[in-house]
Specification:
Elements: H1 12-16, E1 19-27, E2 30-31, H2 34-48, H3 56-63, E3 70-78, E4 81-88, H4 94-97, E5 100-108, H5 122-133, E6 138-142, E7 149-152, E8 156-161, E9 164-168, H6 175-184, E10 188-191, E11 203-208, E12 212-221, E13 224-227
Protein name: 4-amino-4-deoxychorismate lyase
GO molecular function, one term: 4-amino-4-deoxychorismate lyase activity
InterPro entries: Aminotrans_IV, Aminotransferase-like, BCAT-like_C, BCAT-like_N, Class-IV_PLP-Dep_Aminotrnsfr
Length: 246
Amino acid sequence: MSADWLSTPADPAALYGESAFSTLRTRHGVPLLLEAHLERLRGTCRLLGLPDPPAADAVREDAARHPHPWGRYRLTVTAHGVWSQHLPLPAVPEAQRAGADVWLSGWRVHPQLAAHKTGNYLPYRLAALEAVGQGALEALLLSSDGGRVADGSRSSPLLEVEGELWVPSGGLQSVTRAALLAAWGRPWREVELRPEDLCRAQHLWLCGSGLGVLPVARVRGAHLALSFAARALPFEDERFRVPDGS
């Protein structure tokens, strides 16, 4: 079946992915970790030569128009303006909440944009679709040279190796993961994580606004099949709660 013809505006955001965005969790219309998200978004806007995002009060006012019990609020900045989308936060499927199934994809992050959320998002989208095709909840992407695990398609990984927390280098500076590390107060370090290093981890979590902090039970790939002791966080915090639809 052929696609329909569309009238596409001559907007760099649509034509080239020239946009910056951040996705926040909301609670009854109140954005969580807002200042940290805006700080990261401002940095990306400056890198791309885009206008600064709206001030925090303007974002709070906009998000409050849809006071979902739990929401997912996306704020996107383009050269021609700002748009937002505020939807209910989707629940993680029940079978995945106690321990997620993750696919190690062959897709790679952008060599210069991996630390930023931009409209140049296709590798993450393709990795996510690949994971769905493999029956997994999430995908891990490789570094631009293909030698390291860099990031997730919609989350950022955190590993525990012999009592120390590891943050893979080369990916997005996750707001949720940074908040978790600050709240947990445990020692951690950034590492260059090769795919073969995954087997050293005792525990693995996915961190993000959409998933919260979700324990991982399995990581599979074309030449990989690992199991982990899925461990929930030892404390409760609405910023890190795994969505269950309640």
